[in-house]
Amino acid sequence: MNLTGLAVVFTHDNATVAFSGIATTDNELSGGVSLSDSFDKADLKGAGGRTVARGAANRRHNLTVEVFFKDTSGSPTQAGAKGKAALPTMFGIVTLANFGNALYDGTWNYEGGSIASSTDGYQKATLQLSRSEASNGTPAAMTAVPAS
Predict the structure, then answer these.
(1) What is the pLDDT of residues 100-119, one digit of tens each?
(2) Among 64, 78, 89, 147, which residue's beta carbon has the most beta carbons within 10 A?
(3) Which positions of the chain have pLDDT values less than 70?
(4) pTM (predicted TM-score)
């Protein structure tokens, strides 16, 4: 890739997505990646009902990523690619790498998603991921609590 003019992010070359049962070689980033930042807000109202102070806590990052599944075996087939399609477990860990930015790279919790197929297009999975504020104040994936 060659750029001219301003140095801007054009694409996420070599970025990878992996989760339990799906290796980075089984899928490829496709389409958009959308990151949103949110947090809880509280207003302190004084006499007369006017806001005199605001507080913010519990920062959360939500990310939507699209991938397509592929067969990378010695003799790849369409059936092999179809067989790779899967979604992570509920709140399962999804690992993103090679985005080159800590806002994206690292572990995320799976929040939901879908696999879409059509008669005139490709099969794609949309994964909705999240990170919640950790004790150090930065968003991080939450670890699973083992069943007792």
Answers:
(1) 888 899 999 999 999 988 77
(2) 64
(3) 1-13, 148
(4) 0.81
